[in-house]
Amino acid sequence: MSFPQFAFNNIRRNARSYVAFFLSSAFMVMVFFAYAVFMFHPDVTSIELGRNSAAGMKIASYIVFIFAFFFVLYSISAFLKSRNLEFGILTILGARPGQINKLIFMENMLIGLFSIVTGMAGGLLLSKMFLLLSTKMIGISDLPFYWPVKAILVTAAAFLALFIVISAFTLLFIRKNRVLELLKGTSKPKKEPKTSLLLSVLCIALLAAGYWAIRQPLDPKWLLVAAVTGIAGTYFFYTQLSVLTIRLLKLSRRRLWRGTNLLWVSEMAYKLKDNARMLFLVTVVTSLACMASSFLLSLSNANEGAYMSSPFALNYTAYHSTNEKEDIQMIRGRLQVEGLKFTENKVDLLRGSVRDGGKSQMLEILPLSRYNELTPQMGSEIEAALRGSEAVLVISGQLDNEKYVKDNRLTITDIPDRTFTVRKTYTPVIPPFGQYASPLLVVGDDTFNLLSKTSEERNQSAHFTRYLYKIPAWDGQLPAADSRNVALSSELVDSINERNKQSGNWDSMMDARSRNYIGTKQGMSMLGFIGIFIALIFSVSSASFLYFRLHSELAADQRMYRALSKIGLSPGEMSGSATRQIALLFYIPILVAWVQTLVVIRPVLNQIQVYEITVPVLMTIGAFLAVQTLYFAVVRSRYVHSLKRTMV
Questions:
Q1: Are 35 and 64 in contact (CB under 8 A)?
Q2: CA torsion angle for 413, 414, 419, 424 (degrees, to 10)?
Q3: What does the alpha-carbon distance between residue 214 and residue 603 come to, in Å, rounded to a whole number?
């Protein structure tokens, strides 16, 4: 038997151990290859949205490759540790260190080559479906199938280099081990898991610090603090706090000495300690996937809510524009040609600003009477009269209410400087005058006239005009990307933007509700499409980690349950004990990820005025829970079946 045949037979005989790792690696190769097929498609560069999507998929492919590197490194190193006894026997039989290194390198490369070939073969078979699905979800024209030579070369070269580097690097894991240590393999007696009360308290403190940091005003430094403390706290949760919790459970003899509780509770202390790093890694990966998915789903729902709640289909704003009359005639003419019934609302406003330190926030000022005239079309009426410096503030995510409004008082620093008493603060889903409009300050008519007169006397250009178009035919339903609603809105916006670009004078602008909705939807769809495959990789890899850890402990568990069966442990009791242990390993990371997702997502989205997050989070975690339950059922069935075969 030749040396390559010996390496191949080793892989074949350990197929049960390697199958999860092989399938996970092949799946990563397939996803990377699918992204490459899209990125290198010759027709993608001719579409603006296609170029943006290709850029997004390039970033996603980097994420997949980096994650694949650490996944393969962790998996191979764990496999080598489980084969210490085999390496020790080979050493006694005369194998030189160089031969063992060659054997390990050859085995890793064989698995890597099989993964690359299998992944690219699967990618080729599914490439047409991937192109079709990606164009439908992102909202671009269909891309024809092509022979992806460049994608094949890039994928093969990238993952071949990955397996070569890792195969060479992992040789360091066994080089320093002595023969006696290798012969002991994984059968060395385990010491009772120890825990530190100080580190357990530190775990609680780190998690509390992360919770505090994430609730601070949205800022990269606080997000970084929350991430660092949260990840560190999660690590100590598995290495210290969870083991301490098991030890506390063992103090209650009344519960511990009931049924098989003593067996599975005692075993869980060892399993949690032994698998702490793996559970920590699975939790972090699952949390990131859940947070990203919940964030995108919440924004998508908010985008739909913004469209349905926005009262006006078109919003034209003129800042002393010389083309104002011409633009309005064009808009009216196009709507009339389309046969659309519409209501045009001309609104005169003032621009003001509020300051906090060196920062300034623009406000729009509107008289109460004009606001109430528009309420049948845009919202609830402000019934109470506003006198003197009284005002109502209609805020949005663009204004930090607590920062600029102090003790119900808001100060405008121009046209002229004046302090208003805010009687009421109203927070709609989006501002009444469009998704990107500034916050609105509603004041009394006399106050508005006084501010307007003062502005004119100071020659300040605070006046501007909005033309708001209510189009009933476009209300009540979400538009499709190819609908006439979107097409006409885009034509009007592009026409005015092109004119401003040519003249270099941006004294007017136009905002369209449907254009904003479709643009945001396409962006969310692109990120969601990319995120689905990354989340799938994380999920499959997490299951692979758990499967391997259980399989590496199978021999020890078989010896234990066989011994216990001789003194009366029934197959049903064995199955119940093993099932509880496997369930905890599978579902603890999901539970922790769910809690972390709620803690992080709620304050972050609330600060950008997205409040409906419960349903998206439940949907996301429900999807991960369903997939994890499928993995659990398969692994549990195989694991318990293997244990039953050893019982007497």
A1: yes
A2: -100
A3: 7
User: How many Å apart are CA 236 and CA 207, to the nearest integer?
Assistant: 10
Phi, psi of 194, deg, nearest 5:
-110, 155
Scan for tokens 């496999």, then name that residue. Answer: 79
Domain locations in the chain? Answer: 1-188, 311-516
Bridge partners, residue 353, by sequence = 362
- pLDDT, one tens digit per residue, over 313-369 is 888 888 877 788 888 899 899 889 888 888 888 888 888 887 765 667 778 888 888
Buried b (16+ CB within 10 A) or exposed e, 527-563: bbbbbbbbbebbbbbbbbbbbbbbbbbbeebbebbbe
pTM: 0.71
The vertex-601 CA angle with 599 and 605, nearest 5°, equals: 130
Measured CA to CA, the distance from residue 586 to residue 93 in angstroms comes to 40
Give per-residue pLDDT as tens, 80-112. Answer: 666 666 767 777 777 777 777 777 778 888 888
Is residue 220 over pLDDT 60?
yes
CA-closest candidate to residue 100, choices 195, 177, 186? 177
What 3-state class would DSSP assign to 423? strand
* Contact assessment for residue 545 and residue 23, using Cβ atoms and an 8 Å cutoff: no
Q: Distance of CA 210 to CAs 202, 230, 291, 610, Å? A: 12, 5, 15, 21
Burial environment of residue 25 by CB neighbours within 10 A (0 to 12, 13 to 18, 19 or more) = buried
